[in-house]
Amino acid sequence: MKTYFILGFLLISQSSFSQTILGKWTTIDDETGNKKAVVEIFEEQGKLFGKIIEILEADKKKQRCTKCEGADKDKPILGLTIIKGLIKNGSSYEGGEITDPKNGKTYRCKISLEGKDKLIVRGYLGISLFGRSQTWVRQK
Question: One Pfam match, by short name (predicted)?
């Protein structure tokens, strides 16, 4: 009996440790509830980044980030890296930034996994209290 309990505990704890935010996520607009794009989150040199790999709104597939500043100005939104430089901090990732291609603004960013298939993405100015969150869902 004791062996089954220990084995069960190990299996449950292993599955919770193996959850990752790496992969493809469908973005959901927090204002309209519409699916907008697919973002692939990947790791590079110990930091996380997110790139738009698919735009789901047919009329926006060829848009450029005309309101972006710096190196991203006038780049196509498809292929744009919108999440940059997040590092793990406990159960969340933070310390990086996220760009909203709609308005070209860059915000501080915090991401946390809710369950295994929901990602809470928060963009904010200054402190996390002053921002907004979106829920993204994992691509199957």
Answer: DUF2147
